[in-house]
Amino acid sequence: MVKRHAGWCLPLVAVFWAWSSFSTLYGALPDSSLYLVGVGPGDPDLMTLRAIEAIKKADLIFCTDGLEAKLADYLDGKQVIKGYWRLFEYYGQDISQLEGEERVRAEQLAKKRDEFINMVRTNIANKKTVVILDSGDPLVYGPWAWCLEEFEDLKPVVVPGISCFNAANAALRRGVTNASATKSVILTANDWPGKTDTIERLSVHQATMVIFTMRAEFDYFIRQLRTHYPPETPVAVVKYAGYADREEVIQATLGDIYERIDPKALPFEYLIYVGDFLTYRHKSQQQSSAAAGASKN
Length: 297
What we know:
It is a single chain. The protein is an alpha/beta fold. The chain folds into two domains: 28-162, 3-Layer(aba) Sandwich (Cobalt-precorrin-4 Transmethylase, domain 1); 165-282, Methyltransferase, Cobalt-precorrin-4 Transmethylase, Domain 2 (2-Layer Sandwich), CATH 3.30.950. Helices cover 37% and strands 15% of the residues. The protein contains ten helices and ten strands. It has a five-stranded parallel sheet.
């Protein structure tokens, strides 16, 4: 009897093992009623398994028009609310101190933000799971980071995503920490009012720098970089990082970048890389060292 049943027991064991593995793989999502989810840059296949699980769990999803279109297959049948992006401006500030058009804009944003906060709290009070979707990684220059402070009492869970920085590194096919004289990478963005870590000050170190541009002025970036980086410094622009059919890399130097790029033709989704890592080669370094040693002899 034992021998007769051994044959069909093995498939059952295999099925159980596969189900357990699948369950373990998809069971990593921490429990919460509120999730801030990074869905990666570019194409949907750069989204993580954990992000997909969070979307499956959601009763209510906040996202942009672009993300709704990109993730249509995953959002099918879900309640999706749009129109609440970029609510971080003036958050936590005393807008009564502002004047004119800025005061009007701040009050409009505050009203919109209060609507959003009320919707989130009302749905969670009604035992709903709320998911906020953001491109890339939500905590690298993401517009939703303020939510973690606002809803701290709800213990929100952040699902990390692949940043456009990671996708652009892959497009460059270069190790951003590999260079002849430096090992550090500075991530930065436009010089926002009140911030002291300006591009010009950061460029003093001449480390590898990656600029999240977000429609900021390309000419301004190049002017600031040229303050301390020499003209021969390699520079690259990565457009549409993570999109298999649109991704593009343009390489030049700070001295001749305008011969390769028309700033007016740049899209919203591009990053600027500056540093010797773009041209660094391990073998060339070894050959140079060998040649220097031979000349001494």
